[in-house]
């Protein structure tokens, strides 16, 4: 299942590498006065690389989430239970409100 995205990512990396290598090889050629960069091949390779790596990374992330291997910041948020109701305090004369009533 992960072989196809892995091959796509590897092929995308090769396309990007070849585009950069060909550009530098054209710079060193004396007969070529203005080398051009193969943007189509580079962008296509970048898209294949990012899709393949993104799929593999997402698959690993969701597998680890299912087995509860993730750090606490990646776990789903669990809402806090509501606070228990406070009972009214009896007026014993020691509260700050009683000190201000003088």
Automatic annotation (TrEMBL):
Pfam families with a match to the protein in the record: DUF2627 (PF11118)
Recorded superkingdom: Bacteria
Keywords attached to this entry: Membrane, Transmembrane, Transmembrane helix
Region feature (Disordered): 73-102
Transmembrane residue ranges: 37-62
Compositionally biased tracts (Polar residues): 89-102
UniProt name for this protein: DUF2627 family protein
Organism listed in the record: Cohnella cellulosilytica
């Amino acid at each position: 299942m992960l072989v196809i995205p892995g091959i796509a990512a590897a092929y995308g990396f090769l396309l990007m590498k070849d585009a950069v290598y060909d550009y530098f090889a054209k710079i060193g050629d004396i007969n070529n006065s203005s080398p051009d960069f193969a943007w189509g091949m580079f962008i296509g390779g970048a898209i294949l690389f990012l899709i393949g790596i993104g799929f593999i990374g997402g698959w690993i992330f969701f597998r680890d989430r299912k087995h509860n291997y993730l750090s606490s910041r990646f776990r789903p948020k669990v809402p806090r239970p509501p606070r228990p109701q406070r009972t009214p305090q009896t007026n014993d004369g020691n509260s700050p409100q009683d000190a201000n009533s003088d």
